[in-house]
Amino acid sequence: MKDIVDQIIFTGNVLYREGLVNSHAGNISVRHKDSIYITKTGAMLGFLTGEDIVKVPVYGTSELDKKASSELIVHRAIYQKTDYTAIIHAHPVNAVALSFRLNGLFVPIDNEGKLFLGEVPIIELEKPSGSPELAESLSDFFKNSDKNVVIVKKHGSFSAHKDLNYALKLTSDLEFCAKVFIIVKKM
């Protein structure tokens, strides 16, 4: 599915250019029917090629699971419990920094944040990276909430939606709002 691969490559480039991921962090996936197209573990999102994206099943496993992002377990669980077709996991610096100080919730103070994000839950876990605990927690969150973005305390953000571009918008909005929040609070 060249179109899906092209969308993932474009999204990775934007995430990297906006500083929402560092050189080898973050991951992107798109669900198409019973398959997940996901970035490989350690892929450089700002410089993706078609070879950096693998196709794995939504249900069950495959040999390519070993090459897929270490967060595959999380993406797969979300796809199994929701009807979302796009997930972005990023490491937006300001949003992550806020998660060290805030407990349970980030409430943007700027107008765009209030309009597009509303309150953003902050989930704290013992094992926040690529763990069964994270997969269970986030898949339940997205299944039972109308929110499309969440911050995992001290780790990063996850956005899930039916449109990859909108998931990208939410990730970008989150970081912008976190930056505004930090600047205003320092005044």
Ordered list of secondary-structure elements with their pairings:
Elements: H1 2-17, E1 27-32, E2 35-39, E3 53-57, H2 72-81, E4 86-90, H3 93-101, E5 105-106, H4 111-116, E6 120-123, H5 132-144, E7 149-152, E8 156-161, H6 164-186
Task: Name its key features.
single chain, 187 residues, alpha+beta, L-fuculose-1-phosphate Aldolase, eight-stranded mixed β-sheet, globular
Sheet with the most strands, sense and barrel status:
8 strands, mixed
CATH homologous superfamily label: Class II aldolase/adducin N-terminal domain
* Strand line-up across the major sheet: 3-2-1-4-8-7-6-5
Provide the β-strand percentage band.
15-25%
End-to-end separation:
49 Å
Write down the CATH topology: L-fuculose-1-phosphate Aldolase
Poorly predicted ranges: none
What is the assembly state of the chains in this entry?
single chain
Shape: globular
Please give the CATH architecture. 3-Layer(aba) Sandwich
Structural class: alpha+beta
The radius of gyration over CA amounts to: 15 Å
Would you report the number of β strands? 8
CATH class descriptor name:
Alpha Beta
Provide mean pLDDT, rounded: 95
Q: Helical percent range?
A: 40-55%
Give the SSE string. Answer: HEEEHEHEHEHEEH
Tell me the number of structural domains. Answer: 1
SS element count, helices? 6
